[in-house]
Amino acid sequence: MVPDRALRLAAGSVGIAFAVLGLKSAAWWLTGSVALLADALESVVNVAAAVAALLAVRLSAEPPDANHPYGHAKAEYFSAVLEGALIIVAALLILKEAWGAWLMPQAPDVPWIGLAISVVATAINTVWALKLRREGRLLRSPALLADARHLFSDVVTSAGVVVGVGIVALTGLLWFDPLLAALTAVNILFSGWQLLRESVGGLMDEAVEPALLARIRALMGQEAEGALEMHDLRTRHSGRTTFVEFHLVVPGDMAVRESHEICDRIEAALKDELGAAVITIHVEPEAKAKHQGVLVL
What is the pTM of this model? Predict the structure, then answer.
């Protein structure tokens, strides 16, 4: 089942996050580099975010009940919001450490061993992020996609840190280490803001993206033969489910059976396109036509 796959992936993320945190902490402990410390701090956020995503995916898989007739899918957006907030907190902590290191720069110890460990951790994150992104898109899971995006940001950050600490070790430019940590924090801050923006959009029932909306409108027009028009179209995502509502205008003398057949055709086409979807259609006589929206040719 789809929720089971999502749950296994979320649980896997927790294990990966702990493993990567251990590796990056070792790299920092061996070198004393503030840039590698910044990288390790972001991995602390990864652990917290992975645990939050696991809980959210578990809750979102619960079926609808009397208090939640539309299901629990929005729990995943709360996880994504929390992850965005944690990213921002991590960025502020990194900036604090970078400022202290800027005032009192120190040369990293045994840098090449620490960098080798960091490269291994980055490789693990890269492979897992690619898997999460692919599966998250298939399962349409906001929590998994948020985790994948954060990991990709971590990969870019870690790659920059590895190169930067290598430059410090080769050149002796001690000020470059805290500068790199500060740049890492700014990159993380931007990533956290983007994630917060998109997650809040899901909680606020934003409409589906323009390309998908155009596809929905095209399918409605193609499958509504016998009707006159469709208007007051509203869409939103809730986790992996897409909600579509609109008014279908039919000739006033059309039989209920005929209008119901049109609704069935439209609903089937939309569900084939969207996967998990809830379609609500309000049938109206031609006197209610607004001569706008989706016209049936």
Answer: 0.60
Q: State the Cα torsion 110-112-116-118 to the nearest 10°.
A: 70
* pLDDT, average across residues 139-160: 77
Determine how many CB atoms are found less than 10 A away from the CB of residue 97. 18
CA atoms within 13 A on the CB side of 97: 25
Please, are residues 144 and 54 in contact by the beta-carbon 8 Å criterion?
Answer: no
Q: What is the pLDDT of residue 53?
A: 74
The residue extents of the domains of the chain are 2-203, 210-295
Band (247; pLDDT cuts 50, 70, 90): very high
CATH superfamily of 210-295: Cation efflux protein, cytoplasmic domain (3.30.70.1350)
Res 68: pLDDT: 78
Quick one: how many helices (H) and strands (E) in the chain?
8, 4
Q: What architecture is the 2-203 domain classified under in CATH?
A: Up-down Bundle (1.20)
Q: What is the CA radius of gyration of the chain?
A: 25
CA distance 203 to 62: 18
What percentage of the chain exceeds 90 in pLDDT? 24
Of 67, 49, 222, 226, nearest to 142 by C-alpha is 49
